Amino acid sequence: MKLRRVLGSSALLLLLSISSLAVQAHTALKESTPGDGVTVKASPAHLDLVFNGPVRLIRLELMGVGHEMPTNFEAQAEAVANYRIETPGMHPGEFTVNWAAIGADGHTVTNSFSFVVDPTANEDSAGGED
Predict the structure, then answer these.
(1) Is 2-117 CATH 3.40.50.150?
(2) Which among 7, 30, 101, 105 has most CB atoms closer than 10 A?
(3) How far, in Å, CA of 129 to CA of 62, rounded?
(4) Number of C-alpha atoms within 13 angstroms, CB side, residue 110?
């Protein structure tokens, strides 16, 4: 009976260790410009996305209120950690960037971040300008 408990505990610890490693291996957006939740005074000419490792960015949508904004995004076959997406025609307003990427582990991860372009924002609330 004692051996069974020891083996059960060991198996549980092994399973927890493996699952925590798998969680750490998942793709994540490390930083973006503009950053999540920031207000910028000037419309950005591009979005910069920096991931925690090489990924294949397979989807990127720049959404304004009620419409999609044009970008030069094209899905790439090569995995890289840094992406620069041109954003022609940006204007003041609220924006959400929806993205999907495939990481080295083969899993697809989706997420989003938002920012505001407000030329009248004071210097204290503006950030992430390029």
Answers:
(1) no
(2) 101
(3) 17
(4) 5
